[in-house]
Predict the 3D structure of the following.
Amino acid sequence: MTLSSKPVYIAPEQLQVGIFVILEMNWLDHDFARNSFKIKNAEQLAELQRLGLQRIQVDPSRSDARPLPASTGGSAPAAVAAPQEDTPAMLAKRERVARILEQRAAVAQCETQFIKAAAALKDI
């Protein structure tokens, strides 16, 4: 068994640019386009730390940097309790999801009407 097959978790405070992260959360609960990606800048790093997670899975084999040393202070629980703000990117993502759900409902309704029309045509 290789080391890369075991998941590796670190505290959000240990993240830095160049680390490949795997978010174990719903896609709608964060602003990122994917649940797994390499941290490219300080903005992504700050957003990851604002998520309030106690630990984040990382893939060392796909990372360009090593995690920072673990802090010995107990500041992590305070960060978890902090409320999360809806960022403009999160609001836009939710709007897109709502629009997609509306479109799917409209398509389902069209399919139902088509089936009824086809049945009526068959009866004729």
